[in-house]
Every structure is written in structure tokens, then in C-alpha cells.
Design a protein that fits this description.
The chain is an alpha/beta fold. The chain is built from 13 helices and eight strands. Helix 3 crosses helix 5, helix 4 crosses helix 5 and helix 9 crosses helix 11.
């Protein structure tokens, strides 16, 4: 059973506060429903989305050492709900913890830069954890199953909602080690689906890149990558794709009309954020989860569930 004081220093990231506001909204609704306390890091800065290191590794490490230090000051784990934020900040934390013994001068240099700005030093005393891992390892699947209030089995005895996971490559393989799952054969998302009564759909693209990282300079290739994954999920019978990454969501949902045009196929496959799906199962209303904010309508999912 989860601790009544399950609490995290919450790093919402940029995308959930802008282009994918429904993720911010649904995370707040879900954690409140589950009794998880989030202390939002209002002074945190963008993780860089993997781009800072193209100019300077020191820049990426310093910016994110500061983000981690904000959580350390609260003596709490840092919680993300974005695969990219998790991959970047988690990898910085992993690297700096290693450097504390192998290259302490480098960590001292970072802390010197932080001190010049009046920031607390990085100490390596906490962990960086995605909402997915928090639900699976901290809250627990058994407890999550107990909180289910709304069946994800279709109305009138239809089959369960068929959900295709899309993990996001940063969540799985940006860090050297992944203690919560297998980076090449993950099951965490599928285990969550089972716990809340949905049916997992397996397809090749679920652990691959969505195409977002190349969308700014090779949009056609990016759209075709996304289109391949969407078509595979549809061919396997998915009712929706569920992702723990707002950048993947942007490429798979917000850009789905362009994707469909690029591949010459009709798609119309709803793409849900992870807390939206879990939120439905624990009894939160669709509007409260922001399910009316998507580019691709989520109506087919809601109709199947009898809303």
C-alpha cells in the first residue's frame, strides 16, 4: 500500500505548460485522486530537450544540476511526466553521481557556477523518476487496481479498451541504466494497462522514435516515421495510443493530419497521455482530464467506454 505521505518535487517541463496543457491538467487531476502530493518546482528551468549539449555539455549539466538541486533542497525525488525531461535530467543526475567519485573537480566546477548565481549546490542525494515509474514502483500496481472506479471494458459487453503504448526513446534509453524496466522489451506501460482493465496491444514501433527530433529540419521524414507507427498500431487493432511523452504526443496527435497527408492514409487514431488513461479508470471525468483538447478527437475512445 502506498505511503500516505507519497510526495515528489514536481518538474512539469515546458511542453505540458504550453502546447500540451492537457498533460499538466491530467497529471494534477490524477495525482490528487490518488493522494499523491506534488510540490511544483516553480523556479526550475527547461531541461534543454537534449539540445544544450550540442553547444556545451557543461551547459546541459549545470542547468540540470540546478533543477535537481531544487528537489534536493526539499529532500524529495524529482518527478517528471515527460520522457524527454526524464531522459535528459536523469542522465545528468546519473553522470554527475558517477563524477562525484571519478571527476570531483568537474562537479565542483558546476557547483561553482551555481554558487555565482546564488543557487544551491548539486549533492547527488535524490533520484529523478518519471510518473510511469512512480505509479509502478512507488504507488504499486495492486494499489492502483484497487482505485479503479470505471471499467475500461467497452459498454454493452464490448471488448476492453485496446491500448498501444508508445514509450518514447528518451524514457527507455537515454540513461545508462534503467532499474525499472527493460529498455528493449519494456512492460511497465502494458502492466499499467492490465491493472486498470485495458488490453495492451504490442507492435514494433512502441519502443522506437516518434520522429519529433528531426521534425524541424526533415518534416517529411518525421511524418513518415510517425505514420508508420500509427498504421502499425491500427493494423494491430488499437483503439488508441497512450504515451508518457508530450513531445511524442505532439508528433502523433497534433501533427497527425500532416502525417496522414504525408503517407496518403486515413488515420484518426486517438493519442492519450498516460495520466489521462489512468484518470479515466479511477473515475475522473474526461473534461477534467483535458480530453477535449486533442487534435485527433478522443470521442471514439469515450464512446466505446459508454460516455
Amino acid at each position: 500500500m502506498p505511503s500516505p505521505t507519497l510526495k515528489y518535487a514536481y518538474f512539469p517541463g515546458c511542453v505540458s505548460q504550453g502546447a500540451a496543457r492537457e498533460l499538466y491538467q491530467s497529471t494534477a487531476a490524477l495525482t490528487e485522486a490518488l493522494g499523491i502530493e506534488l510540490i511544483e518546482l516553480k523556479k526550475a528551468s527547461c531541461c534543454g530537450s537534449g539540445t544544450f549539449k550540442e553547444d556545451s555539455r557543461l551547459l546541459e549539466d549545470t542547468v540540470n544540476a540546478r533543477n535537481i538541486a531544487l528537489a534536493e533542497q526539499l529532500k524529495l525525488p524529482l518527478l517528471t511526466h515527460c520522457s524527454t525531461c526524464q531522459g535528459v535530467i536523469g542522465h545528468v543526475d546519473e553522470r554527475l553521481k558517477e563524477f562525484q567519485s571519478t571527476d570531483p573537480a568537474y562537479v565542483e566546477k558546476i557547483n561553482g557556477l551555481l554558487a555565482k548565481e546564488g543557487c544551491a549546490p548539486y549533492q547527488g542525494t535524490t533520484e529523478v523518476k518519471h510518473l510511469l515509474w512512480a505509479l509502478v514502483t512507488d504507488y504499486g500496481l495492486e494499489e492502483l487496481q484497487k482505485r479503479v472506479k470505471r471499467s475500461l471494458v467497452g459498454a454493452n459487453g464490448r471488448s476492453p479498451l485496446r491500448c498501444a503504448a508508445f514509450y518514447g526513446c528518451y524514457l527507455l534509453r537515454a540513461q545508462k541504466t534503467l532499474p525499472y524496466d527493460d529498455p528493449y522489451a519494456p512492460e511497465s506501460m502494458e502492466n499499467v494497462f492490465r491493472a486498470i482493465g485495458a488490453e495492451p496491444i504490442y507492435y514494433r514501433g512502441r519502443i522506437q522514435c516518434c520522429g519529433w527530433p528531426i521534425s524541424s529540419y526533415a518534416p517529411e521524414k518525421s511524418f513518415k516515421m510517425a505514420g508508420t507507427h500509427l498504421l502499425e498500431a491500427l493494423e494491430k487493432g488499437a483503439d488508441c495510443i497512450v504515451t508518457p511523452c508530450p513531445l511524442c504526443h505532439l508528433n502523433l496527435d497534433s501533427r497527425q493530419p500532416e502525417v496522414a497527408k504525408a503517407i496518403g492514409q486515413t488515420l484518426d487514431l486517438p493519442v492519450l497521455h498516460l495520466p489521462q488513461l489512468v484518470g479515466l479508470a479511477v473515475g475522473i471525468e474526461p473534461k477534467q482530464l483535458g480530453l477535449d483538447r486533442h487534435v485527433v478527437s478522443t470521442r471514439s475512445v469515450l464512446d466505446k467506454l459508454g460516455f
